[in-house]
Write a structure and sequence with these properties.
46% of the residues lie in helices and 16% in strands. With 329 residues, it is α+β, with helices and mostly antiparallel strands. The strands form two sheets. A seven-stranded antiparallel sheet has the order 2-9-3-6-7-8-4, with helices on both faces. The two termini are 30 Å apart.
């Protein structure tokens, strides 16, 4: 990222600034909760095999992180679709929240309630052009505060030029089906990118997977810095709903089969509960300011004469690792 004008403090302390967001399902799930949206969560996808998608369905959209390059869009950029919520990215570091919001604000599903903040923002921006929507997002205090709650404490924060594509090393975009067509929602373009038609009996995931795979293959050999996440319905709610159906509604299953299925679903519910607990713990650690401890530790090591020996030992290990890699090559 291009850097200029070092500013002391965190991103939250610089008015109008947005922090970088880690590509992690726990972070994105908490963003959703923080926005006031319920019934949705984010899951990481480790492979493009169809089975990796199947067990997460319904999948409402995908969020793809990749190393940004100045590339032509893979489809037709449309600027005449007022029925699609799309905002231009005019704020540095906002692409994570921007990609997530573009999926949520185009979503119509009974499982998911956008909540007061997102519904109000959508109504306010409904008749505005994408550029103005991008500026409105920058001025939406609640959304910005939730985003910047993941700002990591640093000694120096570097300000960047808002909206310049060259400022972004990595970039988030969204993919989702809208009214029978597959769209890529990338705030760096003027509008949604229409990628393909989706057949009446076709699963949109079967259409998008080869498109993402082809995009990854365009990069140089050895480039592995990709991340793919799915916006899905709250898994715990889905499993609990299935349990209620098995308990209260007639089923072709025998009593033993029904009880076995209920036991399996309860195991899944416990897994989701444990996952949410783990996400909360990880996010607390992400937000914790470890810098005073680190600085005090370095100070104490220096005062007791232990710092330089540790440094020299670490440097020697680095040289050995580099020599080993050179020999392997």
């Amino acid at each position: 990222m291009a850097a200029e004008n070092p500013v002391a403090g965190t991103a939250e302390e610089v008015e109008g600034n947005w922090c970088l967001i880690e590509s992690d399902p726990g972070v994105f799930t908490e963003l959703i909760r923080g926005f006031g949206c319920t019934g949705a969560q984010v899951e990481e996808i480790w492979t493009l095999d169809a089975d990796a998608f199947h067990h997460l369905e319904p999948i409402h959209g995908l969020i793809f992180l990749f190393k940004w390059v100045d590339d032509k869009p893979a489809g037709r950029v449309v600027t005449d679709r007022s029925d699609i919520f799309f905002a231009r990215q005019v704020i540095s570091n906002a692409c994570a929240t921007q990609a997530l919001l573009c999926l949520l604000l185009n979503l119509r599903h009974s499982d998911i309630d956008l909540g007061q903040t997102l519904n109000g923002f959508k109504r306010f921006c409904q008749d505005l052009d994408p550029e103005t929507r991008g500026h409105c997002l920058g001025n939406e205090e609640k959304i910005r505060k939730v985003h910047n709650s993941f700002a990591r404490p640093v000694l120096f924060e570097f300000d960047t030029r808002p909206g310049s594509p060259d400022d972004y090393c990595y970039h988030f975009v969204g993919y989702m089906p809208i009214k029978g067509k597959l769209f890529e929602l990338d705030g760096m373009h003027e509008g949604p990118i229409e990628l393909a038609e989706i057949g009446q009996h076709q699963n949109w995931l079967d259409v998008v997977r080869p498109i993402i795979e082809a995009r990854m293959e365009r990069y140089s050999v050895g480039e592995i810095h990709f991340n793919l996440m799915a916006l899905v319905s709250d898994r715990q709610r889905c499993y609990e709903r299935q349990i209620q159906l098995l308990v209260h509604q007639p089923s072709p299953l025998s009593h033993a089969e029904r009880q076995s299925e209920i036991a399996t679903l309860r195991t899944f519910v416990k897994f989701e509960q444990e996952k949410k607990r783990r996400y909360r713990q990880e996010n607390i650690r992400r937000r914790h300011n470890y810098l005073p401890f680190i600085l005090e530790l370095l100070k104490q090591l220096g005062e007791t004469g232990q710092l330089m020996p540790i440094y020299e030992k670490a440097k020697q290990r680095a040289y050995q690792c580099q020599a080993y890699k050179s020999d392997k090559n």
